[in-house]
Each structure stands twice: as structure tokens, then as C-alpha cells.
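C-alpha cells
________________
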Amino acid sequence: MNIGEQILKYRKKEGLSQEELSNKVGVTRQTISKWELNETLPDLKQSIILSKLFNISIDEFINYERINKKDKNNKVVKTIIIIIIILIGIFMLYKIIYNKGVNDASISSNVYIECIKDNYKYNVSISYWNISKTVYQVDGSKYILDNMNLDYHNYTVIEVINDINNYFNSNGGSCR
């Protein structure tokens, strides 16, 4: 909104005609009309009188357009901050659910495998996340852990079980 639109808005808000406003400011009605049409601008003394008549600060009267732009910019910044906070929340929730962010029994499970080779029993415990079925820990027989070199990160529980079964089956053993 420019100064002319400002003058028109506040003149009407105060219920003044161009003639009445011109008498209060000490100019002609035609001058008020030219101001409202943005053909000319009030000088500093007239701007001070207008701001007092309209009960607004001279800054608000002269810089109205800039103040509105700042308000709009503040709203944009606030909106961006809210979006960032929401995205951070979604990301944290994702990390908790899918990427080992919480070690809670309700979201994880264990599978126990017993394998036999050369009349020896080997036990393995595989811990995994229920939702993604990705393995986060393998414990058990030192023989299995040392000989298989299990790099279980980012594997599903089925893939790790199949690797263990395949290893024992190909080496004369079996698992259940």
C-alpha cells in the first residue's frame, strides 16, 4: 500500500471528506485528491499533520509498505521454522522406529538357532527390529562367530538365518 492509498484509507476510516481533510491539513481539496491518486506526495510537515490526524506514527504513515513486507517476511520465516520442526520430528520418529533409535522389547525380537556339526551343538541368538526385520546383534557360539565372519548390519533376519543354515549344510552340519 502506497502513501496515497494510506491517506484514502485513513480519511475514510475517520469519516472525513476530501474537503474536511484539506481544511485540517491546510491544503486544497484538489491537493488531497492528487495525494490519494499518487500524483503528488505530502511534504514532511503535512505528513506529520496527517499522521497525528490519523493517530498513527509518522514511521507507520511513511513506511507502511515496508512494514507490511516485514510482517509478511516474518510470517514466511515462522512458517519455515514450523516446517523444519515438523520435519525434524518426523526424522526422529523414523530413526526411532527403523534405525535402532530405541532398544525396546516391544519393537524388537530374538530368534534362537541350534546347529549341530560333528556331534557338537552350536547356539546362536539373532536380535532384530520387528518393523524392518533388520538384524542389530548376533550372539552365540564363538565357532560360528569366528568361522562365518558374520557382518550382519543391514541384513534381514531371514538372510542371516539362511547364511548360518547354508554354512552348516555345506560343512556337513544342520540347523533347526
Q: What stands out?
A: Residues 64-98 form the longest helix (35 residues).
